[in-house]
Amino acid sequence: MVTTLEIDKTLLQEALDLSNHQTPTTLIEAALREYIQRRKQLKILELFGTIDYDEDYNYKQQRSSIYLTIKIETN
After folding, report:
1. DSSP of 11-48, one letter per residue?
2. What's the pLDDT tens digit per position in 12-39?
3. Is residue 2 part of a domain?
4. Is 4 contained in some domain?
């Protein structure tokens, strides 16, 4: 796909200088990947405090029962 963009030349050159990308195309693709990754991370952070959990859940008890089951089965 061919797209024409008007980008500040100084901004583009500075980004190229700071990166290991050789062409503006690879630089822009990497920038878009980073942007997408960051937005996905922000969406995950928005879930903080919205997930309900069982206060009676005892992961230690569950782990010990798994360990005992494995131990019994190996004898």
Report:
1. HHHHHHHHSS-SSHHHHHHHHHHHHHHHHHHHHHHHTT
2. 999 999 999 999 999 999 999 999 999 9
3. no
4. no
